[in-house]
Amino acid sequence: MAFAPNPISSQSSSGHSSGRDTFTGLSLAFYAKDQTLREITESAQKGTLFSGHVGSLQPDLVNKFTQFSKSKLDSQRQTLKESAETVYNTFAELIERLHNDYHLMLYVIPTLDGMLFDDRKQIAYLVKRLQDQETKEINIMKRLSFILQGEHDSIVYEATARVLSILLSELDPKVYWLHQENHINFLMMADKKGEKRQLREYAIANSLVNLLRLESLSKHFLKAGGIEILSKNLQNQGTDIQTSYYTFFCLWLLSFEEFSVKYFADPALLVIKRMIQVMQSLSKEKLIRLGYSTFRNLSNSAEALELMVDNGLIKVTSNILKSIIKDKETKDDVEFIDSVLEKNLKVLTSFEKYCKEVNSTIFEWGPIHTERFWRENVKKFEENDFFYIKKIVSLLHTEKVEFKHKNQAIACFDLGEFCRFHPFGKNILEKLGAKEVLMDLFNSSNSTVKENAILAIQKMMINNWQAASA
User: Fold this and answer.
1) Is 32 left (phi over 0), alpha (psi -120 to 50) or beta?
2) Which tens digits make up the pLDDT trace of 137-187?
3) What is the pLDDT of residue 38?
4) Pairwise CA distance, residues 63 & 44, whole Å
């Protein structure tokens, strides 16, 4: 499921090569870094990369590498077709021996990344080399790990992280677990502000795609809080198609594992909500394909289905079905989710679901916070001396900053609807002291809270709302 990193023309407006017509230009490390790519490929084509190593390298190695670096993509592909193992061993040897050469690594590692992006199966040559080197102190895996701990350009870090991710994903966890665990931990820390080797969200996601193919690493990633990183990716980079694509790809891989369901179904992590928001804002078929395939994998979870309904997936799905979906599998997944959500809508808008949400102390706008819900269920709130009305009033005092304004706004709306549809709603809320709290919220700094508080009081001021609006 590869996707071109930055599909721009291989020629710049000035007529000079932009670098996209080489393996170097296929490296995901050059996403949105066109000028840097141009400078690096121009330097490589001048043949000066080995100027400081003439005496320490075999002339044959230098000549082959220089010829390869000066070639265009079609010619480079032909060279790999004829002698791929030799080319990969050459690149690996350069990394193992000359990793401290900043300018050389700025070309070598991204080019290796581009070669693997073009044909991932060729990682087999590096795996074979590593297995042949197992008794040696220095090998390609250790050297790539070492580079990530040193001082390099961000392009080198991103390309190295991805190449190492591909290599480690092809190794047996029983033998290489410690290396795999260390690398995925590195990626999870690399998005932290202030980190010395900080990576872009885009680079982290396209590196994780390779590692999350392994069940053992998926489990470790989830237990270590990794899904929060993916959720934040969608929040921070939700308008960037490439970052969103690779983040969706990671979530799709995770969704195949049964143990991942509880993380998707956790409303506090906001994963399903943000996936739906991204599909709404970008509306690209490749995102829809991954998104709905992920939702299908989660469709046996009642909790996950609740989140899909609560966050408006029914409407999103309806709009998508009105458009032309080219891919048959994607269309099947969208239609499947549409059918499942419609079948479960009655259950998912039940009084029991409302009680569950109130008890969680986290409100989310959705079908249970609508006029229809209150009209159909208002009498049920009389149970246990209006226990759940009291709980709603208590949410007006939410202290958690993250949920405070949303909880208050929804609680205001619901209390107003209770007044509309219960014959003694006004008297009950006044006895509970809700009126004073609602009036205090007129001064809220949040416009949505203020608006819903005013509406709630207006509804309370009418003794029989239904009669007045008849």
Assistant:
1) left
2) 788 999 999 999 877 788 999 999 999 999 999 999 999 999 999 999 999
3) 87
4) 13
pLDDT of residue 4: 37
pLDDT given for residue 245 in this prediction: 95
Structure tokens at 237: 């980079």
How far is it, in rounded angstroms, from Cα 201 to Cα 430?
50
Tell me the per-residue pLDDT of 274-289, one tens digit each, with 9 for 90 and over: 999 999 988 889 999 9
**Interatomic CA distance for residues 106 and 99, integer angstroms:** 10
Query: Which amino acid is located at 13 in the chain?
Result: S
How far apart CA 212 and CA 205 sit, in angstroms, is 10
Please name the residues in contact with 383: beta carbons below 8 A apart, sequence gap of 6 or more.
Answer: none
C-alpha angle with apex 200: 196 to 203, nearest 5 degrees?
115
Residues 323, 317, 206, 75: what is their CA dihedral angle, to the nearest 10 degrees? -20
